[in-house]
């Protein structure tokens, strides 16, 4: 099970830190991802981090968002800086085993709202 937290309301230019905690096992052999879905839009991958620590950031959030993982605590975080109104969305964490081709387990989502 994945539990996401840390969403909220922030002004443009502000920061938020999302956290995703896994229960029931270790994340050591799992890739982790943060997705978001804005109203009327498809869910999109924002950032990801592999089991070995390699990261990916969508162009829209590069230099603003940072993903990190703590395998000992079975958590993954998303530090979001210089937030923009277009970052407003429900953010979901997801995980997949290292050999899987699709994201398997999803958290419940946390709302991020950025006002101008």
What characteristics describe this protein?
116 residues, mainly beta, 7-stranded mixed β-sheet, 0% helix, globular
Report on this model:
The protein has no helices and 11 strands. The chain is an all-beta fold. The strands form 2 sheets. Strands 2, 4, 5, 6, 9, 10 and 11 form a 7-stranded mixed β-sheet that branches. The protein has a 4-stranded antiparallel β-sheet with strand order 1-3-8-7, with no helix packed on it. Strand 4 (30-37) and strand 5 form a beta hairpin. The protein is globular, with a radius of gyration of 13 Å. The model has no long low-confidence stretch (mean pLDDT 95).
Explain briefly what this protein structure is:
The chain has 116 residues and is mostly beta strands.
Number of strands: 11
Distance between the termini: 34 Å
Which residue ranges are poorly predicted, with pLDDT under 50 across at least 5 consecutive positions?
none
Structural class: mainly beta
Number of helices: 0
Average pLDDT number: 95
Shape: globular
Major sheet details: 7 strands, mixed
**Residues in helix, %:** under 10%
Hey, roughly how much beta strand do the residues contain? over 45%
The ordered H/E elements are: EEEEEEEEEEE
What is the CA-based Rg, rounded?
Answer: 13 Å
């Amino acid at each position: 099970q994945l539990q996401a937290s840390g969403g909220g309301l922030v002004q443009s230019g502000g920061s938020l830190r999302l956290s995703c905690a896994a229960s029931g096992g270790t994340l050591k052999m799992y890739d982790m991802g943060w997705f978001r879905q804005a109203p009327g839009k498809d869910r999109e991958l924002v950032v990801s981090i592999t089991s070995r620590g390699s990261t990916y950031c969508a162009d829209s959030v590069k230099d603003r968002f940072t993903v990190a993982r703590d395998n000992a605590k079975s958590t993954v975080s998303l530090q979001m800086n210089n937030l923009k109104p277009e970052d407003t969305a429900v953010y979901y964490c997801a995980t997949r085993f290292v050999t899987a081709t699709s994201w398997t387990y999803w958290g419940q989502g946390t709302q991020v709202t950025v006002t101008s």
